[in-house]
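Response to reviewer comment R2.3. The reviewers asked that we include at least one raw input/output pair. We reproduce the pair for Flagellar hook-associated protein 3 here without editing.
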Amino acid sequence: MRISTAQIYSQALNQMNSSLSDVSELTMMNASQKRINRPSDDPSGMGTVIELTSYDQSLSGYVENCSVVNETLSLADETLMLASENITAAVELMEQASTETYTETQLQMMALELDSYLDSLLVLANTEMGTDSIFAGDDLSSEAYEMGLGITLSNDSLTNADFASMTGEVDSTVKIQFTESGDIGTDELDYRYSTDNGETWTTATLASGDTTIDVGTAQIEFNTGTTVTAVDDEGNGTEFYLREAAHYVGSDTNMSVAISENTSVDMSSVGSTIFGGVNDATNTPYAEPNLFETISNCIVYMEIGDYDSVGASLDDIQAAHDTLETGSANIGARENKVTYTQQSLGVIREITTNSISQEEDADAAQLVVELEQANYVYQAVLSTSAEVMQMSLLNYI
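Raw output as returned:
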C-alpha cells in the first residue's frame, strides 16, 4: 500500500486538531469548573440542570415572599402589643371615672385624656409597612381608618339603623334633642342642638317631607319614617350626640401571598375585625365588641358626667381588648407558619443546589489529571508530526 505525502500531512493535521480540541475542551472545564458548559456536552444532564435551576428559582421567589410576609406580620404583632398597652391605660382611666369620686369638670379632663388614647390607637391602626397599610386588608394603598362622624345614643328612643348618613365635621360633641314628636319625612318637627353640653342651645325646624337636620357644620340624614319623641323636663325623649368616629375605609378581604407551591398566608389584616369602628360604606358601627366605638362613646359619657354609662362601658372595652388579643394571636400563628415554611424552603434549596452541582460540576482532581494527559498527547502529536513532515526521500539515500 502506497502512502503519499498528502496523506501523511492530512492524518497529522487531523490528529493535531483532535488533540487540540480535547485540550481546549478540558481547559474550558477547568476554567468554569463545570462538566457541562453547553447542551452538547451532555444533553440529558443539561436537561436535568435546567429543570432543577427552574425549580430553584421558583423556591427563591417563595423565600422572598416569606421574608416580606414575615416582616409585615412582625410589624403588625408589635403594633398590636402597643395597642394593648394603650387599651390597658384607657381601662384604668375608665375605672377611675366610673367611681363617682370625681367632679364633672374632672371627668371632662379625663375625657380629653381618653381622647388622646383614641388618637394613639387610630395612628396604630393606620400603621404602614413602607407604603402598604397593614390593617387595610388587600387595599394596601389606602389607610385603614379615617376620621368621620358617629352617633352616641343616650336612651333607646333611636337605634343606629335610624340614621342614613352623617356629613360635615364637628369640633366638639354636639348634643341634639327633638322638642316635638312625630315621624321624620312626614311631619314638621322642631329640634335643638348644643355644642357645650346643654348650657346654650340653637333651635331649628325640620321641614315636612325633609329627612336631614342641620347642626351647624354637620348634617344628619334620618331614614324616612323614623319616629321621634319630644324631650321632657326629665330628659326623656329623643336625645343623642354627634361626635367624631373612626371610619374603616379598608377592604374586608386580606391580602393573601403564596409562600410555597400549595400554601398561602394572609399578609395583611382586616382592621375592622380587630379595632371595630364605623363601616364607612353604611355609616353604621361594626358589631360588638367594637373598640373604637366603645372608647368614642365613653368619651361622650365622661363629657356629660354619666358615671353609670362609663361603668357599663368597662365590660365592652374588656371584650374589645380580648378581640384585639385574639387578632394578635392569629398574627403570631401566621408568623410561625411562615418562619417554619421559610426554614423548610431553605433546606430544599440547599438540596436542589447540591443536586445541580453534582450534575454539572466537574471533578477537580480528575480534571487536572485529564488535562495533563491531553496536553501530553497534544505535545506528542506535534512532535511526531513535525518529525514525519521533515522526512523525504533524501533521508533514505
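DSSP finds seven helices and 16 strands in the chain. The first strand starts at residue 128 and ends at 129. Further pairs are available on request from the corresponding author.
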